Amino acid sequence: MGILRGICCRCGRVICPHCLGAGISVGVVVTAAFVFYGFTWQGLAAALWGLILSQLSLADIYTMTAPYGLVLVLAFISSLCLMVSPEFSWFNSLIGMFVISAPMFILSLFYPRGMGGGDVIFLAITGFVLGWRLSILGAIISIIAGGIYGIYLLNRNWDNLSRRIPFLPFWSLGTYIAFLGGYSIIEWYLSIF
Question: What is the pLDDT of residues 108-154, one digit of tens each?
Fold first, then answer.
């Protein structure tokens, strides 16, 4: 068996870059979950959570929407994550639910083209799982990643500056990084000062 050179082994067609990227992202998400948590219930819950985040990101890239069905699946997987989490706190989760989603909801009232209801619900669900500290960390990571992508587009002489950029992939990236190693990142950052 040789190298396939970008050809599907089943149908013989060329694999598109988007499909290749989706496959790689799923592999990275699942591997990261089991590396951080091992082969435990927490690792399985983290892998499922990451898979749904990646599917929501792909849906947002292609359709500029966050499908409510996938958001509901995210809510179900999130409840599984909380059931296996030893650090669960209602107070922390309720604050986390609103710390990022409430300002984004208010922003969406003033600029409805910027963010839709699916994004706000996504932020509320992930905030409930992460709690307020990790929600803020996830938002910071997301904004930095989105800003880097925006700078890249501007440096590429992007001709259509009025085009909308799907931001859910950046929210997903930030929340997943915070989910996996958020407390370690916070401890590292606080140790600098």
Answer: 888 877 777 788 888 999 999 888 999 999 999 999 999 998 888 88
| Contact partners, residue 163, CB within 8 Å, separation at least 6 | none
Query: CA-CA distance, 8 to 169, in Å (whole number)?
Result: 26
Enumerate the H helices of the chain as residue ranges: 17-37, 41-63, 68-83, 90-99, 101-110, 117-155, 168-192
Exposed, middle or buried by CB within 10 Å (0-12, 13-18, 19+), for 22? middle
Is the separation of the CB atoms in 179 and 185 below 8 Å? no
Using the CB atoms, write b or e for 62-82: b if 16+ within 10 Å.
eeebbeeebbebbbebbebbe
Q: How many CB atoms lie within 10 A of CB 38?
A: 9
